[in-house]
Amino acid sequence: MHFRPDDILGLILATGFVLIPSLGLTARFALKPIVESILRIRESLDRGRSTEEPRLAALEERVAALQETLDRVAQAVEFDRQLQATPPRPAIAPAPGTGPRLMRPAREVPRAHTEPRPVLHPADYEEEYL
To answer: CA-CA to 2 of 20 to 30 Å: which in 16, 27, 54, 122?
Structure first.
C-alpha cells in the first residue's frame, strides 16, 4: 500500500478541519471554569483591599498627626528646659574694669572726679563692652 502525496495532504487537511475545532471546543469548556475561578479569586482580593485602603489611609493620617504633635511637644519641652537652664543673675556686680565688660549705672552719666558711687542692684546696670 502506497500513499500518494495527494492522499497524505488530503488526510492532513481533513484531520485538521475536524481536529482543530474539536480541540478548541474541548479546551474552552475545560479551561472556562478554571479561568472563572481565578477571576473570582482576584475580584475578592481586590474587594478586600479596597475596603482596607480607606481605613489604612485614615490610620496613616492619624499617625502623621500624632507624630507632628509629638514633635511640637518635644520642641516645647526643649524650649522650657533651655529657659530653666539660664544662669541666675549675680547678686553683686563685678567691680568696674575687672572683667571683659565694664558695668556702669544706667541712670548715672559718668563724670570725672566724682565721689564713690553706691553699689546698685545688677538690674540697674547696663553693659558696656570694652
So the answer is: 16
